[in-house]
Give the backbone structure.
Amino acid sequence: MAATRLHLLGIFFAGLLASSMSIAADFRVPAEWEPQAAIWMQWPGKYEAALRPAFADIIRSVQKHENLHLLTSTAREQEAAKAFLAKRGVSDTNITWHQVPVDNAWMRDNGPIYLTNGTTVLIQNWDFTGWDGTTGADYRRDDKVPGHVAGLLDMELEDHSGYVLEKGNLEVNGAGIAMLNWDCQDQRNPGLSKAEHEGILKDALGLHTIIWSYGHDPEDLTTGHIDGAARFINATTVVIADTGEDSELRLADDLSTAGFKVEWYPGDVNWLLGDGYVVAMSELDAALDRDLKARLKAYFPDRKIYLIDAWAIADAGGGIHCVTNDQPDVQSRR
């Protein structure tokens, strides 16, 4: 039975690869430091209300620099969200509201992946299974969000719903290289070899190289999303969270061997890199925050640095990057 299942999986994914190769041949996933059109977020519902103050701080930072799109499930929820933000001194500047049914507030993972060939952009929809059911939360409406966004933006939607891929486990340098955590991809799509995973991802995302990270904290409900451990800051440099874990040390060795420069960051690397700014986690310690801000300014000298208290998001299992989804700035649509 196992051999038959693997054979059928091979047939299915071979078809998936064939359908995506012609598009991905000329398309790539832009790096986060490239020009952006907007940031997208899903407003926290009643079960995630503790996240709302941090969301307000993120939104306040983003709207100073670029457009922000906010999804709420109902008109009533939208009005309540507007009132909450107003009470915290957040204006309605550069905010576009959409009533789209959602389950959770983690749009990095269930939201779109954008590809561009330099003159046009399209949206990819991959399977989202609620982090393999680790939180027990519903996810069926979240899984449909990329289609809603494609409709709102009048963009082509490319379907890859036969394979689970959360954008929090995808870091790209914009030049054909990606980092992913193996544990996460292996758990989400069991029964596939590494070569099969790489074939699917390379062909669909326009990649030529994948660097894998191995290992994760057993308490991590994302099963080790890469954006909590390592981030590209330019095409040839990766910043790794300085945790002392063997998995980070191994990743640093692998990156160095592959010719990348490695920097170590003594804080949370789950920051949002926006169009002219960075929103990162404050450590709530003045001296440490000065050090973090100086490091971020060295990484991104032309960007405004914001350190905010996002510990409610961290306590819920993620970070600032996890609740935001960046849309690249490509004017032409196909």
About this structure: The radius of gyration is 19 Å. The chain has a mean pLDDT of 92.
